[in-house]
Specification:
single chain; alpha+beta; Immunoglobulin-like; Muramoyl-pentapeptide Carboxypeptidase, domain 1; 3 domains; two-stranded antiparallel sheet; 6 helices; 8 strands; globular
Amino acid sequence: MPQHVAKQGDTIVSIADRYGFNWERIWNLPENAKLKQTRKDPGVLYPNDVVVIPEIKVKTVSAEMCVRHRFRYKRQMAIFRVTVEDSAGKACPGKKFVLYVDGSKHEGTTDSSARIEQEIPANSKKGKLTVWLEDEDNTILKWDLQLGYLDPVETATGVQARLANLGFPLGEITGQIGPETESAIRSFQIVHGLTVNGELNDEVRNKLKELHDKN
């Protein structure tokens, strides 16, 4: 069977879309069992992870000659899902949002659990989310999104991506734990009642996974 070596930004869903398969077929392939056990989430791959791709089966269709026929390719879709919280970690239900994904605009309000669920193309890479809190200060929350760029939380890049997605900006995601990342970790620790030292430790990783990956 052919293999795909994952690059930064790849997910099982985007890989499946590239090869024309349903993502569950690739994820549940026996040859990918070890990868599935290691990563546990089809949205999380690490560069150089090896994904086995099923053999393509050719489908033959009988059709009348000299007549124009139209075949429709069903595009692979993914679900963008997020729970919106303010800087104090308070959920924000019933708030207006606008989500831009690769140039397409989606509008709505967060549900009673402060969640947003939106179907987007599986190969989407960038987005922007804006939420209006409509408080006395007319606060607006904004996030720049890198879709699919989520490494395991055990890696420095995985920690940085989760911090940025949760509203703790740290500049470019480089995998290097410098002053900006330490400052973001410190802010994260303050907001969530952790030991405040700016250090990347298991307490920080576990809280990031609890808050970020619960969606």
